[in-house]
Amino acid sequence: MSENAEITIRQGDEDDLPVILAMLDGAVEWLVANGHEGQWGTEPWSARPKAAARVLELVRTGTPWIAEIDGVPAGTG
Question: What pTM was computed for the model?
Fold first, then answer.
């Protein structure tokens, strides 16, 4: 990240579901690579219909936030 990077936090919505799932998939990949298969399993969230549906439900009923660095999603909460 450059010294002049623009960091923004915005409210997300259903259109951000692919971004959120990609972040969760990345977390699974990292956990598996570091020997923590038991935490979230080994299969990406996006490949598990029930898990993806649960994330969509949370996005619809909650208030997801997306952090971006220079317009590129970098985190969610």
Answer: 0.87
Residues making up the chain, counted from first to last: 77
Local structure of residue 35 (DSSP, 8 states):
T
Q: How buried is 46 (Cβ within 10 angstroms: 0-12 exposed, 13-18 middle, 19+ buried)?
A: middle
Render each residue's pLDDT in the chain as its tens digit; 77 residues. 678 899 999 999 999 999 999 999 999 999 999 999 999 999 999 999 999 999 999 999 999 999 999 999 999 98
Query: What span, in angstroms and rounded, lies between the C-alpha atoms of 52 and 4?
Result: 35
